[in-house]
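4.2 Preliminary Data

To establish feasibility before requesting continued support, the project team ran the inverse folding procedure on a target of 466 residues. The structure was first converted into the token representation described in Section 3, and no sequence information of any kind was made available to the design step. The complete token record follows.
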């Protein structure tokens, strides 16, 4: 095993010298965001083959099919075979069932329904139905990752359930990402379980995703990551500028589910930027910001946009790491708008002609890279702690060894407290404790697992342990 760097050597080493010590260091003076993080994982041959199967033409066909149902408003008709949310629900189930039929029994498709009692934006008891496909893991099936989009739509009046509400970008685009990933992955054998979800009731109050998250929580499910794709259909902003190679990823810092005890620990160690969700977002950059996706992931340190919310929030509220993908700059004339042309000739409405389907295909690749690597890599380490019994200028970390059969070992990562991403990596082998000759007072440290194929888990941020 390579020795850990000392305080003196690590703070003065050149990039070459640091590499010799087993420490990865970013290129000196490179602009932020222009280089991969030290923790970056290059795409495997298996992942590249998977991503090549993602088809933008199929994504476009899905969006146009969903638009063809006229409206998918949560309060629209549920028993018309051609119009309304019920028709969309039935078509989605048929599509996911067809993918499941080609999976060799690994994938199942189902409707998940409940009756939402009256409340804000729900004037009478209404059946809310999620359409789910579950691809069971072959090695660690109890570890779960979720990807979602919402299939309901709306116009200017959130209570208007009869007018045409095409919802191409918001959010047929996100549902199309979910379906395409389900199609491509159904033929494969992930180590962990992936749930593909088209949820309803988002525009009326995140009802479908809240029910899904609550069902998982009640079952004691080990959900180690969740992504929602909401408004991922366009690369063109309201001023006409285009950014077709960037996707925003919203990731909260202070956890929505934080208890008073957890808040006290966070404040004591300065962990506001190291929630499990922030580690998940860093992981996405590690595995999906590369030439296999042709995309830049712009991580936004917020739960969501101002005055807005998405289907990741119910998962956050239940203690699950969750983040939201959204296009780089929205055009608000093409979401939550009645379809119309104003006196200047400007077209309003969320129509398919304002989507960029090649862009949506690349967004699907980002999701695919993150989900597949998460499912194939070891789980996030548990029980990570920094020993604080004695006041010293070294740092001792401990963690619990994972149960994955292909687990090969662990790495300790660290960064300056002002750095947004992990900048140094120290291989420590198949161990459950390691001492770093760096003061825990001066840097942030973490632990990640490595398997026999070289795939790394998200980082676990340690709590202090007396």
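Position-by-position output of the design step:
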């Amino acid at each position: 095993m390579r020795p850990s760097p000392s305080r003196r050597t690590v703070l003065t080493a050149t990039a070459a010298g640091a590499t010799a010590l087993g420490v990865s260091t970013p290129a000196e003076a490179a602009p932020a965001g222009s280089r991969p993080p030290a923790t970056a994982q290059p795409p495997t041959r298996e992942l590249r083959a998977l991503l090549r199967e993602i088809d933008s033409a199929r994504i476009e066909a899905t969006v146009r099919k969903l638009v063809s149902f006229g409206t998918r408003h949560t309060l629209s008709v549920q028993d018309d075979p051609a119009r309304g949310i019920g028709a969309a629900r039935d078509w989605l189930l048929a599509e996911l069932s067809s993918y499941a039929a080609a999976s060799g029994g690994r994938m199942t498709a189902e409707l998940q329904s409940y009756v939402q009692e009256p409340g804000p934006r729900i004037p009478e008891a209404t059946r809310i139905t999620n359409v789910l496909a579950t691809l069971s893991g072959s090695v660690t099936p109890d570890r779960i990752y979720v990807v979602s989009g919402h299939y309901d739509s709306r116009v200017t009046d959130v209570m208007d359930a009869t007018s045409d509400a095409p919802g191409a970008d918001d959010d047929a685009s996100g549902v199309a990402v979910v379906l395409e990933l389900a199609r491509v992955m159904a033929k494969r054998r992930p180590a962990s379980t992936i749930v593909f979800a088209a949820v309803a009731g988002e525009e009326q109050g995140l009802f479908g995703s809240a029910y899904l998250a609550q069902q998982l929580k009640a079952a004691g499910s080990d959900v180690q990551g969740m992504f929602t794709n909401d408004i991922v259909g366009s690369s063109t902003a309201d001023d006409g500028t285009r950014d077709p190679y960037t996707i925003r990823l919203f990731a909260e810092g202070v956890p929505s589910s934080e208890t008073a005890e957890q808040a006290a620990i966070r404040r004591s160690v300065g962990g506001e930027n190291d929630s499990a969700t922030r580690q998940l977002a860093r992981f996405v950059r590690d595995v999906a910001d590369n030439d296999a996706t042709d995309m830049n992931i712009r991580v936004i340190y917020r739960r969501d946009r101002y005055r807005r919310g998405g289907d990741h929030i119910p998962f956050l509220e239940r203690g699950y790491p969750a983040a939201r993908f959204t296009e780089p700059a929205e055009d608000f004339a093409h979401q939550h708008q009645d379809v119309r042309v104003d006196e200047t000739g400007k077209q309003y409405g969320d129509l398919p002609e304002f989507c960029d389907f090649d862009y949506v295909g690349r967004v699907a690749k980002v999701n695919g890279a993150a989900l597949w690597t998460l499912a194939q890599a070891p789980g996030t380490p548990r029980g990570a702690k920094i020993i604080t019994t004695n006041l010293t200028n070294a740092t001792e970390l401990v963690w619990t060894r994972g149960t994955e059969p292909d687990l090969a070992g662990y790495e300790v990562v660290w960064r300056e407290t002002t750095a947004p991403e992990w900048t140094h990596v120290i291989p420590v082998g198949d161990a459950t404790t390691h001492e770093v000759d760096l003061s825990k007072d001066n840097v942030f440290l973490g632990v990640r697992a490595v398997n026999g194929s070289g795939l790394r888990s998200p980082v676990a941020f340690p709590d202090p342990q007396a």
